[in-house]
Specification:
alpha+beta; Aminopeptidase; 5 strands; about 25% strand; globular; acyltransferase activity, transferring groups other than amino-acyl groups; transferase; Bact_Acetyltransf
């Protein structure tokens, strides 16, 4: 079942945030510190109540969180007038517990995010995914997402 996140869900969501932090650290230790989540419990609970954020959790039959999606409503208005203004629902974070993967949880969470984006009158739903997170890239492609743009880098470690 997918439902809006509640304060009681914060400890479990923090556990899943630690999984994501560890994954990012393993893939890009030059950028990510380690397994500390990007929010503490107080900050996470505050996010649950923000007007421009939508956070949904997937729960099992015992109401235990096995995944979440965090979304932020954004108004895009180009100050240089090279792009049309539009509204988007940005997926800031998605995580499914390892034990619940490949069971439709991620798809159900993204379906709920798309439903919310439509209800909010958004043009699209978008997200960023790190190139080192190949499983996530495959998942997003499998549900029909496509590249909008690519960020590229050169690490300035003396080899350039």
């Amino acid at each position: 079942m997918i439902r809006k996140a509640e304060k009681k869900d914060a400890p479990r969501v923090l556990e899943l945030l630690r999984e994501i932090a560890a994954l990012h650290h393993a893939g890009r230790p030059d950028i990510f510190f380690g397994a500390d989540p990007k929010y503490d419990e107080a900050a996470l609970c505050e996010k649950f109540g923000r007007e421009n954020e939508r956070i949904f959790v997937s729960v099992d039959e015992n109401d235990r969180v096995n995944g979440y999606v965090m979304c932020v409503l954004q108004e895009k208005d180009d100050p240089f007038y090279t792009q049309r203004p539009y509204r988007t629902l940005y997926v800031d974070d998605l995580c499914v517990d390892k034990a619940a993967r490949r069971r439709g949880v991620g798809r159900a969470l993204m379906d709920r995010a798309v439903e919310e984006a439509r209800a909010l009158g958004c043009y699209h739903l978008d997200l960023n995914v790190w190139a080192c997170n190949e499983d996530a890239i495959r998942f997003y492609e499998s549900i029909g997402m496509q590249k909008e743009r690519q960020y590229m880098e050169i690490i300035l470690d003396g080899r350039w």
